[in-house]
Design a protein that fits this description.
With 269 residues, the protein is α/β, with parallel strands linked by helices. It contains twelve helices and eight strands. The protein has two domains: 9-163, Rossmann fold, CATH 3.40.50.720; 177-268, ProC C-terminal domain-like fold (Orthogonal Bundle), CATH 1.10.3730. It has an eight-stranded mixed sheet with strand order 3-2-1-4-5-6-7-8.
Length: 269
């Protein structure tokens, strides 16, 4: 995009994802001076400005010079925000939405024709550089715009590009996915303490087991099925545990949970 000697990044909404974006963008090599923050919670703005060295401005002001305008507000607050800033955004800028369920066409209706809009579904591990994000283009966005978003998120973890029709499935998979594993870890720790381990020892063992298993999944040529089979001896301890999972219908339960997340994402649109 012409007319910008230095990329300026506006982040509107500085909750959990907003702060994760600050972290990721700074790790990607951008400076704090290139980032400006806006939020209706003034105390939160002051906190993050002090923590990261980013400047702050009223919402309408931050969009004026920003090449990339990142919207990290709650889905239910998106329309009100776009009513304020929509006509201030030009074709030389891009809108990047991180709100679950909000379609690019719903955002574009508040903007002038030609303004590129991109939709990203991130997840919270972005804050430690191990996130998973899916990027989709709106009507006016180009491959150059996708590349620009990938550059912003290159230190956030992994990114993929999907058709927007798949974003609700992404939400149910990676967007909500960390919470599924946190819930499973909670259950394992509780189970371990009921078997007699201290909570501290249970937490150490469970977290190391989960992270170790995740690392094994990253190995080239590995598959969850093969790894599961490798650790499951016939009629052994793991076999007994997995039988309990199967009797409880764990596969269908997980699929049901993911469908519920997908359906809620659709409702938010």
């Amino acid at each position: 995009m012409e007319g910008f000697t230095q990329p300026q990044i506006a982040i509107i909404g500085v909750g959990i994802i907003g702060e994760a974006l600050i972290n990721s963008i700074l790790r990607a090599g951008f400076s704090a001076e290139q980032i400006v923050l806006a939020d209706k919670r003034l105390e939160r703005l002051e906190e993050l400005s002090h923590k990261y060295g980013c400047s702050t401005n009223p919402t309408e002001s931050v969009v004026v010079d920003a090449e990339n305008i990142l919207l990290a507000v709650k889905p239910q607050d998106m329309d009100e925000l776009l009513e304020k800033i929509g006509k201030l955004v030009s074709r030389d800028q891009r809108i990047i939405s991180f709100a679950a369920g909000k379609k690019t066409v719903q955002i574009e209706k508040f903007l002038s024709d030609g303004v590129p809009v991109l939709r990203v579904m991130p997840n919270t591990p972005m804050s430690v550089g191990t996130g998973a994000s899916a990027i989709s283009k709106g009507k006016y966005a180009t491959n150059e715009d996708v590349t620009a978003v990938q550059d912003l998120l290159k230190s956030s973890g992994k990114t993929i590009v999907v058709d927007e029709s798949l974003q609700d499935a992404v939400t149910a998979t990676s967007g909500s996915g960390p919470a599924y594993f946190f819930k499973f870890v909670e259950a394992m720790i509780e189970g371990a303490t009921e078997l007699g381990l201290s909570e501290a020892d249970a937490k150490t063992l469970v977290i190391q087991t989960i992270s170790g298993a995740a690392e094994m999944l990253k190995l080239e040529g590995s598959s969850p099925k093969k790894l599961r089979e490798n650790v499951t001896s016939p009629n052994g301890t793991t076999f007994a545990a997995l039988n309990s999972f199967d009797e409880g219908g764990i596969t269908e339960l997980v699929k049901k949970a993911m469908r519920a997340a997908r359906d809620r994402s659709q409702e938010l649109s």
